[in-house]
Amino acid sequence: MTHPFLALTESDREEMLRTIGVSSVDELFRDVPAGVRFGRELDLERPLSEQELSAHLAELAARNVDTTRELSFLGAGIYDHYVPAVVDTVLQRGEFLTAYTPYQPEMSQGVLQSIFEYQTAICELTGMDVSNASGYDGETVAADACYIAKHATGKTKMVITEATNPQVRQVIKTYAPGFGLEVVEVPHRDGTTDPDDLAAAARDAAAVFFQQPNFFGCLEPAPELAAAANDADALPIAHVDPLSLGMLEAPGRYGCAIALGEGQAAGNVMAYGGPHYGFLAARQDFIRRMPGRIVGETVDTEGKRGYVLTLQTREQHIRREKATSNITTNQTLLALGGLVYLTWLGPQGLREVGETCLALAEHAKRRLQERAGLELVFADRPTFKEFAVRVGRNARDVVRDARALGVHPGYALGRDYEGMDDVLLVALTEKRTPEEIDRLADVLAEVAR
Amino acid sequence: MKLIYEKSQAGRRASVIPCPEGLPAADVPEELRRAEPPRLPEVPEFELVRHFTELSTRNFGIDNGFYPLGSCTMKYNPRVNERLVMLPGFAQLHPHQEEDGAQGALELEWRLQEILMEVTGLDAVSLQPAAGSQGELTGLMLVRAYFEDKGESEQRRKVVIPDTAHGTNPASVTMAGYELTPVRTDARGNIDVEDLRGKVDEHTAALMLTNPSTLGLFDENIEEIKEIFHGAGALMYYDGANLNAVCGISRPGDMGFDIVHINLHKTFSQPHGGGGPGGGPIAVRKILEPYLPVPAVVRKEDGTFALDYARPKSIGKVRGFTGPFGVFVRSYAYIRMYGPLLREMSETAVLNANYVLARLKDAYDLPFDRLCMHEFVLSARSLKRDYGATALDVAKRLMDYGFHPPTVYFPLIVAEALMIEPTETETKETLDAFCDAMLAIAQEAADDVTLLKEAPHNRPVRRLDEVRAAKNPVVKYGFEPAPVA
């Protein structure tokens, strides 16, 4: 039988076997010892046609309740921001979609120049000097930054604020034993990190890691945190929301050594957690310690400008066990989506997205207090697009009951934080409207307390 | 071609952001406020589309033509998968959605896990690792957790890796906190079993092996290797980069491997996007299941699907959520279109590779004269010695013929290596055209080597100066008026 993705005819096959000098396809596998040959057919369901496959996957997709079917205020690291059509248009170009890593630059100027432009955009957002071509996600680039810090300082203590995304902390802790790192967490005080607490913990530390805005949506006193780290000779590392950087100061401008984050909010659909891109940028001092691909500018033999993968002596295919990382495949296509999105926004659009999110979040805070009678958990703290609210009983039950009324009200913080079982983390993006916020308030008025 | 930043003019824009009326005026506190806006491009939407369309024309993907990049399995990426992954039920699904609102996604993940167990011959799967190299690192974390549990982690510090391995293997060993024990390749291209015997003992934690190897050769001594490692109480890790050779033919679990990563962007057709994304699920033997990352995707007795975090021995998390879900959609779809015919897929890949090898082996050097699996390694050693034409020159000249070059200078143990992987999804006409080009280039080397030395001739740029780029790194746009190429 001929499969649509295979192309050889019976006569092709015969002619090819003749050229090779064997009598059957089986003979090609003569080096595979009999003892490890698979003696039966794979126990998989019969092949599906494209049409049958489409019906099957449509049926699976229909059993998910996505944000087009349920009004959702979920965030907690992944956000329902608008992704413009131009992102799909560019990412579906086969020349980008179906290319491999640009090992041969003359065949790959399109992706190389794009990544150079992406690196520029990330440096502009973060105020840093150098960006890599992307990491897997906001969690793994955090682990990468710890690895840089360990090798740059020779110290083995990593300080992380407890108000940092729990998944980020968990991934760092998973990597830590192999890196030879000890992880120390600094508790929050009323939703943000106290610079004095951080200063105390930062003694003898390789780096201090914090998130801005933090996991509760609160704005950390980030410049003070960075200063506390620098005073203790520990590298300040900021995990930032790219869409906050039209309004919030760039980490490079307040003394951070490394800035990184989850890129999803800027140009990727949520897709149940991936694929997305993690961005990682640093001060010039760390350029030779960066993990992964970096694109650099050069010229060709005729003096014409072009782009290549550069500083490759950092990388695994050259340096092997002495490489700065084992990363090979990264998230180039998703990072390209990020570049297209940031280009679509421009500086003005970036600021406006931030302003709309912030204004909607402030509006939602008021409505939930006035209309649903709820209490903000960290009422004194400024926030960006997300905030924590007390719902009077177990937030997971509130989520269940609100969903029964067609609204996903947010993330139950009790999943990760002790004493927060009755706290809901509510996220606002520019896709939400005041009317939807009223609906959230009405539903919570009914199911909370 | 200009950079997007060089096309930017203040005041232009592509986006309109809704700002509902009647919202409270709000700003961030002054001490946190941004002083200078980022210099993002300012262009209208049609300039954006033209810019990236023009860039795409300066790139080459499988959709453009033959791409025999060894070890990368550049096969056709079915277009239906791109449509399926955009279904709102997949694309617009929040990863923190409650389990009862994500049953379709969880079922797809569970089904993919079951399929990968059958294909690898192992007992449990975690889809979480984001790529092959992260699968390797995760696998080594499992090795450490396993030996810690047995009280042997202090003693077992060494990981054995053959000299043909991908660079990711030794790099992963270091990142996992292990020490590297290299082992040689023998005259037939197998692991040198005698060298191995002397290096495996009670200090050995694991072997990392690609089989077929990066030489495209199936290790004929795999059963003996298994005896050596399992006899020493060590584990065996299978780098699944070359799984496309053996689906339905020989399973890593049956070869004796305890941990396998699968590159979904190679064998199972996730488009590589110019560098990523990928997917690197790991499959393991039962004894290692307790240590897999959380959450595990499980089917409950009532037939519904759930995320299981109650794994006290788990190594933790290596990435956010359950992994790159969109990659799972594409790979699951791809496998469902093949079913048991995955064997025919692998057989065809091996047939294509052997055919190209048979046509080329007289014009180039063949370091190991055996039948190959899904790829093979030639050497341009003689062309270099006789005419000064290197593997790189051959690669660049292939561009003039409209083909993407093979992988060059890898594996490291072959001088002037050209590593060629045609994959199964090519017509015989394409394979013949590529062989004709390779043969013509070998002849050109003899007749007029400058044709090779000065190649490529018809790409948007000529050969680029990589040394200059590394010596004085320019890794972002300078925002100064600069002469434009």
Put the structure in a nutshell:
The complex is a heterodimer of chains A (449) and B (485). Chain A is of the alpha/beta class.
Write up this protein.
The complex is a heterodimer of chains A (about 450) and B (about 475). Chain A is α/β, with parallel strands linked by helices and about 450 residues long. Chain A folds into 2 domains: about 70-85 and about 345-445, Aspartate Aminotransferase, domain 1 (Alpha-Beta Complex); about 85-340, Type I PLP-dependent aspartate aminotransferase-like (Major domain) (Aspartate Aminotransferase, domain 2, 3-Layer(aba) Sandwich). Chain A is about 35% helix and about 15% strand. Chain A contains 13 helices and 15 strands. Chain A has helices spanning about 10-20, 50-60, 85-90, 95, 110-125, 140-155, 165-180, 195-200, 220-230, 315-320, 330-370, 395-405, 435-445; strands spanning about 70, 130, 155-160, 180-185, 205-210, 235-240, 260, 280, 295-300, 305-310, 375, 385-390, 405-410, 410, 425. In chain A, the strands form 4 sheets. Chain A has a 7-stranded mixed β-sheet with strand order 2-8-7-6-5-3-4, sandwiched between helices. Chain A has a 4-stranded antiparallel β-sheet with strand order 11-12-15-14, covered by helices on one side. In chain A, helix 6 (about 140-155) crosses helix 7 (about 165-180), helix 8 (about 195-200) runs parallel beside helix 9 and helix 11 crosses helix 13 (about 435-445). Chain A is globular. By secondary structure, chain B is α/β, with parallel strands linked by helices. Chain B has 3 domains: about 5-30 and about 40-55, no CATH class; about 80-340, Type I PLP-dependent aspartate aminotransferase-like (Major domain) (Aspartate Aminotransferase, domain 2); about 345-470, Aspartate Aminotransferase, domain 1. Chain B has a 7-stranded mixed β-sheet, sandwiched between helices. A 3-stranded antiparallel β-sheet of chain B has the order 10-12-11, covered by helices on one side. In chain B, strands 8-9 form a two-stranded antiparallel ribbon. In chain B, a hairpin with a 5-residue loop joins strand 8 and strand 9. Chain B is globular, with a radius of gyration of 25 Å. The mean pLDDT of chain B is about 95. The interface between A and B is large, with 211 and 204 residues.
